[in-house]
Amino acid sequence: MTTEAVPLIPHSVLFGNPTYLVPEISPDGTRLVYLAPDEGVLNVWTAPVDRPDEARAVTHDRGRGIRTYGLCHDDRTLFYLRDENGDESWRVHLVDLLTGEERCATPFDGVQARILAHNRWHPTTVLIGLNKDRPGLHDVYALDLVTDRLAKVAENPGYLSWIVDTDLRVRGGTVMKPDGGLSVFLDPPDGPDGPGGPDAAPPWLDVPYEDAMGTRVIGFSRDGATCHLLSSIGANATRLFAVDLATGRRTLLAEDPVYDVKQVEFDPVSRRPQAALFAKDRDEWVFLDEEFGKDLGRIHGELALLSVDGEVYVDRTDRGERLWTVSVVTGAGPVLYYVYDRPAGALRYLFSHQRELEAYRLASMEPFEFTARDGVTVHGYVTWPPGAERKGLPAVVNVHGGPWARHTFAFDEEAQLLANRGYACVQVNFRGSTGYGKHFRNLGAKQWGADMQSDLLDAVAHLVAGGGIDPARIAIMGCSYGGYAALVGAAFTPEVFTCAIDLCGPSNLLTLLAAGAPYRTALRSFMHANVGDPETERPMLWERSPLSRVGDIRIPVLVVQGANDVRVPQAEAEQIVAALEAKGLAYEYLLFPDEGHGLARPANRQTYYAAVERFLAAHLA
Hints:
Structural class: alpha+beta
Distance between the termini: 16 Å
Number of helices: 11
Oligomer: single chain
Strand order of the largest sheet: 28-29-31-30-32-33-34-35
Largest sheet: 8 strands, mixed
Helix content: 10-25%
Number of strands: 35
């Protein structure tokens, strides 16, 4: 086998802080705002829109860093969310961009804040969800940016999520039914003590279990006469509808027989859909507005002149609609950011998300598909080591979390690390993954550790049969559900995998379903419908738990956990580690005391991936 030498990419480049991230134009069109490191921690920076070299940091976090922020339409306030070491008790922090003053708008211990709504028509009001009074339910509060006063505007009658219109009026919400379906209500509460909600009126829309993940109200037109609905009811894949609220008449706007609508682009003023995006192997846009389609065409044309091929995403935060920020995901390089001058039809390059990556040869995600053992078509991506002959390579099956998510064509740091080190990175959108319609998604119901896992095994068999990967050198790794799948691989099919890496994965489905933060209890019926019901299916859940078959593990396992994880608690890692220890089985355990579900701090990420690289090198030879 001939192999072309490829320089190794340092962990600090792949998993340290990005150089830049998520740029936006301020609503008044005067500022460029983005995330960048300040003293080694991600913070928000601003600069005059035409002088990006004059940027300065306007937040000063020295912890895990800021990843979620927004600019308010009062043209002076920036907000960001921050929790405590990954515990997901998010607080809303505000920064006055004129004075530099910073304050916390939700200074409540153990309370989770959610930004529900803010827009140009109500520039000094932000709607926030807070579980301050009842840990399991988020009530709606209006935050006045002038006075910092929080006023409760709606008591939660049992909603899993709220529905709010462009005038910041609460119009209803969704309730999870006992069978895992949804009831959608558009009868708004009258106020904090108003009747409203599921006890006061029949549902506006009753969503069967099989359509629950593909159906939701995504917004209202500015005139309030129309709501926009994503729904898979009566079809296989999620479609986009406009619904006349006076008559109930639905107008179908966009559909695909196989793929779900991934994203909808709205006109910033009328709030009517201009385009729908379907994530196939690569993105496919359906344009509903001719002018928006022309703008996307101009952007693609400008990129073609630069020989840049990638998925294009736009952010239109400038109220004047003059400047857009554009993100381009090439899959084989860092994410590229541009400013699109709409009147001129021209692109101006800003920066890439990680400047140092530009010096290295990166790999590209390549789509593949195969037929599973029961005849179902399954899709995925392989990232091959650049410069290596695609024959008999060691491989890592990298399983996505969720599991109600999917791999897409993107820049994936893990895939790049693995390919750069000589491994084929196999990423499978196994049954239960989203995006491929409800039939495929619902094939994953109660198939944790069963048919969902078989799809991973069938992907391996497909690639082995093609000669690309060596059946004697295959690892499995993942985070969250992916960590669970890695443990299942070690316990159920140790003959297939050489080693396994579990980051924040559950080891016992019974204890997983009994745990979690109070505000996650509203999802319990969903989890019971899709994972299993502990009351009626206890034996099945135990049989699907890696802990039940720990004695069958005969390959090395790396277990990694964040101590503050509220989704998959630390006990899930501790019990599998204790069982491995008791049986004298080979394992390593890393516990990060300042992390939650996944790893956010760059130092921790680099520690983890150094351990991953060493572990794979030791066991895949």
